[in-house]
Amino acid sequence: MEQSSTSALLQGTVLDLASDVVSALRSGDHVRAGSTLTGGGAGEGVARAAVRVLGADTLLPSVLLGVPPGPGQLAVFKDAVAAHPPRDDAAPAVVWSHWAMTRALRRTGPSPDGPPSDGTGAEPDARWLDGAGWQFLTHQLAVLAPLALPGEECAVTRVARGRPVDVARGFVRAVRRRDWQQAAGAGRWLTLLDGVPDTLGLEAGLDFVRLMGGSDPRVALQLEAARLMPAAVLL
Amino acid sequence: MSGRDASVRDARVRDVSVRGVEEAALAWVWAHRDRFALGEDALAADGQVNRTWKPLGELTQVCASVARCTPPDDPLHTRVSELLDFAWQQTHRGELFPLMQSLEPFATYPLEVYAAFASAGLRHPGYEASAAVVARTRGWRLTEQYPTRRLGVLEAERRSGIPPHGGVPQATDRTWLGGLPEPWTFERAAGYALTHVVFHLTDWGSTARGVPADLAEYLLHWLPPWLDTCLDARMYDLSCELLAVAASLPRPPEQALLEDAWQRVAAAQRGSGAIPEEGAAQDAAGPDPGPDPYDFTDCYHSTLMAAFAAALTTAATAPPPDVRHAAPLGGQHAGQGAPG
Amino acid sequence: MPSKDKVLEEVTRTENIDIDAALDPAEPDGVFRDSRECAALALQSGGTNLLLSPPTPRPKKG
Fold first, then answer.
1. Domain that holds residue A8
2. What is chain B's mean pLDDT, rounded?
3. What is the pTM of this model?
């Protein structure tokens, strides 16, 4: 009982946080991205955990719109990175989402008290995707959608670039399954990839995912990212 | 050619199970052949065509295709040849077709069923002549139909020696597949429409070159997610049709993509060889089904389609690549039952 | 609103479990439902036979 109520609280905070990010991406107002974190609606621990779950996308308005994050927001983000390092036996997606957060910090918070340069920033490997079936590949990429950014390179990005048709297949599969979150995450990746078959109809597909699943702010966030990415210039 | 040669080795292990699916499916069909027999209601005004002529036409089409792509010394070739004889006997060696025409002169399904027999070399010249008379009317040409069905009628005309009443490319363009739609709009109805477009364009798997290049590329791209999700939804019948499509293309899809699908089809096959059309039949059969738990109507079509897809798959990956064109039975003709 | 201490306590207890599950979620089961087909409006009942057999004659009025 307690666990599920805590879990629900965390889940709700993640949704609030995602809504803030969506609002900021739509309006260009980066301050609003931090309202859940600074509004006192959730405890610090929950807020920190929620930032860890939403990951690098918490700073997406700053990354895509080029506006520096608010100091309070940045502080919570740093806390989340520090408080939730991946365990030694963590799944690759967990390790990579943490790495994505440290990269976001490097990009947006080049202050002297930025992330330590003691190797925490070392890029993990993408061997777990070697020979992965297109279904698993797309699911993992969707989970790691925060890595899908224009002009950013990493091992996961290189894997995705090598398999545009497979990611497109995964998008079709996700829509067919009505897994809007996976579809939106895969769609965000596809906006970055060359070699996606034209017959996919990506633009109409993203509109369709928004129509069907856009009420979930985590879905809307991916779709906003996909909308902004072609035009975005990274810091 | 060298690409295909390379894929032959990769396909060895898979061939064992695909062949197993085919043998078991045809064993079920043989054991239940009496259920395909035409009863008295086949000619009755209120008879259910979908329960009489349609299954018989589908049996005929599948057996004609299996015969064509199976070497004459293969026991399965003998088996399907016997089934073809059985089916032809049901039509009184074709005599029922002119009779049907006298009862329902403007119906297209008798010609579509007949074309399946014609593709196996079982013909009735008198019926072909009288069908040609009706096919010359404007009314026949203007029959209101789904575009996929229209394509099927055109092909039925061709195979029955009747000048087709329209062009295949024009008819293809009006189908769902012909328009290259967004692949994520695929659903059951679109799936059945597209499989039949390919069946008609390729003479039921015998002439892969009948698929235009843009359609072939489109199918290579999107068959994998369609197959995967249809199998997730336990739509075995449509999955088998999609596997038949995959084996009918000028260039086969990556073998690994199909191997998973065949494993899942094989897992759905019961000891008798029966494969349920959809998961609902499995649910109805309960947690501990016997070897032959399904009603005829819940499994005959999917079991036929499994045999059809398996035969095409085996032929497409067999060492002499053109073996499926080599069997003399039926020459370049193929037929069709009604869609679905 | 729950007290901050209570929330913190709960989070501490469940952080490791919940967060990893949220960071590497399993794929949800697919949801499949196909469009149904409805015969065209004002078509006679029993339209499902339209494709394979001619429609039954309508009774003539007057």
1. 1-124
2. 90
3. 0.88
